[in-house]
Each structure stands twice: as C-alpha cells, then as structure tokens.
Amino acid sequence: MRLGVPRRYIIRSHRNLYRSKYSSILSDMSFGPGDIEVRKVQLTGGTTYTLSIPKPWADEMALSPRDSIRVDWRPSGALRLTPIDLLDRQEKRVTLDAGSLPNESLHDHLMGAYLSGVDHIKIKFPSGEERTFRKQIRRFLRNTRGFEIMDESESGVDLICLISAAEMPLSASINRMYLQLTSLVRDIISVLEGGDVELLSDADEREEEVDALLYLVERQVCITLDSHLVATTLKIGRNQAVEHSNLARSLERMMDHALQMAILTKAEDIEALNLKQAPMPQISLWQKAIKQLMINIRTRDSHEIEESRAMLKQVQVDILQFEDQLMEGGKFSKGDLFHFRLSESVRRLCAYARDFGEVLLNLKLYDEMVVETIDD
Fold first, then answer.
1. Which residue from 175, 210, 219, 272 could staple onto 194, CB 3.0 to 4.6 Å apart?
2. Distance (Å, rounded) from C-alpha 240 to C-alpha 258?
3. How many whole angstroms separate alpha carbon 200 and alpha carbon 226?
4. Residue 28: its pLDDT value, please?
C-alpha cells in the first residue's frame, strides 16, 4: 500500500482501469443469458439519463421501437427490466416418455413437473400399456389442483393447467388448510366426548385435501421464485413466498397427526373421555394457540405470537409429565395405551404449531428489516 493513500481508493482505481480496458471487448462479444456486460450511462438533453439495451436481448424478447418495458427499482438498488407482456407469452412444457421411465414412477415424475411449475405436460406411452399409465395419470389428477386432460389418444395424453399461479393468493390455500385441520380436530373431540364416530368417516379425504393444497402452495412458490412478475401480482416477496411454504408444511404435518388421532379414535371402542383429564384440556389449548397464530399471519403481533408459543411449550411439558405418569405403572392397560398414543399426537401438534409461530416471527422481522447503503 502506498503511504498516505487509503487502500479503498487503490482498489477503486484498479477496478475502474479494468472496466475501461474490458468494456469495449465485452461489447463486441455475443451477449446471452447469464452474461454480464458493462454499458455507460448517457446524458440526453441535459436532464435525462439514458442507457441502451443489448440488441440480442431485445431480439429475444421480440421488442420493437416504442414497446413498453417495466422498470422495477429493487431494494438492493438494482433496476430490473421486463417486457410488459412477458408472462402472457411464456408457457412451460415438458414431455414424458412413460415407456422409458422406471416401473410405477410416472406419477412421481408428474408430481415433479407439477411442483416445478410446468403448464403443459405431454405424456407418451407404448401401445398396449395405456391402462397402467392412465391409472397413474388419474391418481395425479386427484392429488393436484388445476390440471385437466386437454387431449388423449391411444399413444398419449396431454395435460394442461387451467389455474394461473398469479390468480390464487398463497394465504387462501393456507387458510383452507387451517380450516380442514381444525374441523377434523373438532370432530375428534366430539367423538371422544361420546359423539357419533361417523363424524370421522371422511378423515382420509380431508387429509388428502390438505396434501393437495400443500402441493399447490409449493408449486406457486416455485413459480414465484422463478418469475418476479408472479411475485409482484401476488404482492409477495420471494423470501415471504418461501416462508409461506414453511407455514403450509407445518399445517400439513399437523394434519398428519390429526389423521392419526382420528384413526386411533375410530379403531378404539372407548367410553367418553373425561374433559378434565389429559390430553383433552391440552387439545383445547392447542386450538386456542393455533387460532391466534393464524390471525397473526396478517397482524404480526410479537406479543401474541410469543404468548401462543409459550402456551404450546407448556402444553408439551404437561403432556410429557402425563406420559411419565402412565409409564410409572409398568404395563399399559388398553385405556392407558390409547391415552398415551393420543397424547403423543397432541404433543406433536404443539411442536409443529410452535414452528408455525417461529415462521411468523421470521416474516415479521423480514418486513421490518431496513436496507441502507454504506458510504465509504
């Protein structure tokens, strides 16, 4: 380092020298996706700054003189240029040769395409085996939302998505998942109190609905991460989209344990449980906490979120104490085993609800984060 000259000025001068030396070379090179090019800002008319756009990019976007371009000023300080009708002119397609895939794997490949944000799936299969492949296609259509058969023949099927990712808010899917979860838990409580077990006859269907909604949320998040236009339409940032996926995942895991509680309740011939005996009071506390956390998707109140998480933690402690008491007697009776398995699922519900609250805090702090430019 030269005496009396700050190191940052030396670095800056070397950087400027590099730019001046290589900018002309970069301008002459073919420009394509992933490439970086240095261009100079021009002053026009004494008041307007202008910057020419690369011709290969303009050709790729099918731009003509006087076409409109959307300019986004990003929080990072970057400017993002997007043709106005870009989203309408794009379609994501994939072709699957079912005959070349591993046995019984067509459904998995279809789910992969769905979660990746594909709009159009073309499936080809060898003649004589269409019955096996059509069965997997029907299963895929049951497990997802938005895809329909557009065309089919003896040698293949075309599937197209009729739902635009930009038209369905993530919060709507998450709210639907919450309603399915809490309705099942309410029915479980009713049966445990002596109600008709037929209330739980559609528990599997409700769990499948939550799974399908989770897949829909994950598909939308993938598309949002891929397209800032979708993110802008949904009025959600990419970080927020990922956290909404985490919220949906927590609800889906809670639904898994609610289903286990329903299966356990239907399988056991039990008398009505004492509402004051664990884990019945703890289920009510979980209901109160998850309701408060759902409200805070919108309100983001730190005190309410932490209060709910603290309540859930105490419920977990109480359930562990109850399980220890059951195990102190040595051998389990049939009733003890039922209470133990039921309380274990309730404890899991509380654990995933606490994770749900943690994600809400992540969303709150991200929204409150301030990005500042540091001067030299």
1. 272
2. 27
3. 40
4. 42
* Residue range 188-192: mean pLDDT, rounded: 92
Q: Which CATH architecture has domain 170-368?
A: Up-down Bundle (1.20)
| Domain segments of the chain as ranges | 8-88, 93-161, 170-368
Query: Residue 149: what pLDDT?
Result: 94
**For residue 97, what is the enclosing H or E element?**
strand 93-97
User: Which position has the higher pLDDT, 203 or 130?
Assistant: 203
pLDDT at position 42 over 70? yes
- Pairwise CA distance, residues 262 & 208, whole Å: 14
Coil, helix or strand at residue 250: helix
The Cα–Cα gap between 207 and 185 comes to 12
Antiparallel, parallel or unpaired: β 156-161 and 120-124: antiparallel
Question: In the β-sheet with 156-161, what is the strand arrangement from edge to edge?
Answer: 93-97, 120-124, 156-161, 147-153
Check residues 23 and 98 and name the one with the higher pLDDT. Answer: 98
Amino acid, single-letter form, for residue 363: L
69 φ, ψ (degrees, to nearest 5): -125, 135
What is the fold, at CATH topology level, of the domain defined by 8-88?
Answer: Pemi-like Protein 1; Chain: D (2.10.260)
- Write down the architecture of domain 93-161 according to CATH: 2-Layer Sandwich (3.30)
CA distances from 316 to 87, 153, 326 (A): 47, 55, 15
pTM over 0.70: yes
Q: Is 36 left (phi over 0), alpha (psi -120 to 50) or beta?
A: beta
Pairs from 21-29 (Cβ < 8 Å, separation ≥ 24): none
